[in-house]
Amino acid sequence: MHNSPYSLSADQIRVFATMSVIVLHVSANGVSRLPLDSSAWWLANLLDSASRVSIPLFVMLSGALLLIPPMPSIAGFYQKRVARIALPLLLWSLFYTGWTWLKGEVKQQPVSLNQLSENLLSGTPYFHLWYLFMLVGLYAATPLIRWLMLALKVSYTPSPSFYLASAVLTSTLYTLGFQWFGGNWPWPLWFIGYIPLFMLGAAMWGKPSNQGRVALLAAFLLMVVVIARLCHIQLSEFSQLQPIYSYQYLSLPVLAACVCAWYLLKRPHQKLAPFTRFIAPYCFGIYLVHPLFLDISQMLMAGLPVGNSAKMLVQIPLVFACSVLTCMVYRAASSKLFKPAFSS
User: Fold this and answer.
1) Which residues make Cβ contacts (< 8 Å) with residue 309, sequence separation at least 6?
2) How far apart are CA 98 and CA 125, in angstroms?
3) How far does CA 112 lie from the centroid of its chain?
4) 200 Cβ partners below 8 Å, 6+ apart?
5) Helix axes 252-266, 160-176, angle to 10 degrees
6) Integer Cα distance of 199 and 257 in angstroms
């Protein structure tokens, strides 16, 4: 299975989305901090815009991997999903709660216990962990979503266009009221807006695109420019509106860019296969640990006498490399510590 095109395609999407998350979190700091219209700001804006497909790609891939294969039993599914996400969610929420407190003490900007508790209860103990909290709801609803797709298949046999239209409709509704949808829902309901993307990933998995790679890449880059330009318009002319619409994961331009990226990455790229297969097993760990190195690198690089653009371009591979190395060390250490104890 590991050498199949299915596995390589899934790994390509997973690795690209993981690397995009790091680009997103490095560049987002530049968008919010740098002077509007400066060359460094535009670089940050374009990088941010290009990496906004990361979370939608994760959701679509989860749909392809969870909604297509047979489900032996609902109880078995929940047991496997709980084992995969519950303990990491708990441990990393506690870790980043402590990290938030420590950063506040170091910066002499103490964070109160009430604020730490509120962050935890609201599903955002740290800025990236919201995704795991959202996944809890998505996993919980997966058996029902599978049943719905099977029922539709029996009575209607919808094409991927049907699910794409559903995603577009959801995105349009989000567009009309994105501020209300985006900020006011409690975390157990966050998954609702991502259900069409979840289903779309399953529907599109076995359907190759008729477009060539050049056309798909051109369309993706065009969407990146659209996202970046809409961000610039909002910040320069409607700065009172927050958050930035085109940066939202459920916005129309991000959805279009995501579909292009999906079809580009779903075609196996054999030249990148060794790198892809090496990084893929560490993707979950990279996602969890990378904010630690993001914070440390920002503090260390703050006083360097180099331009902001150079800092970003150095920080991205630095955070990625440190995250990968940490995951490798952890895997090697845990293998030595735990395998002998459980070997027969």
Assistant:
1) 39, 40, 43
2) 10
3) 29
4) 60, 63, 160, 163, 164, 166, 167
5) 150
6) 17
- The reported pTM is 0.90
Looking at residue 254, its amino acid is: V
Reported confidence tier of residue 170, pLDDT bands at 50, 70, 90? confident
Q: 233: Cβ–Cβ under 8 A, 6 or more apart, which residues? A: none
Q: What is the pLDDT of residues 117-143, one digit of tens each?
A: 999 998 999 999 999 999 999 999 999
Contact of 313 with 44, CB cutoff 8 Å: no
In the three-class reduction of DSSP (H, G, I as helix; E, B as strand; rest coil), residue 303 is classed as coil
Residue with tokens 């097993």: 281
| DSSP letter, residue 52 | T
* Of 57, 26, 59, nearest in space to 43 by CA: 26
In angstroms, the first-to-last Cα distance of the chain is: 27
DSSP alpha helix (H) spans, 4-107: 5-33, 39-50, 54-67, 74-106
Residues 304, 314: Cα–Cα separation, whole Å: 12
For 4, the token pair is 């199949």
Domains of the chain, residue spans: 5-342
324's tokens: 């990968």
User: Is-contact 254 227, C-beta < 8 A?
Assistant: yes
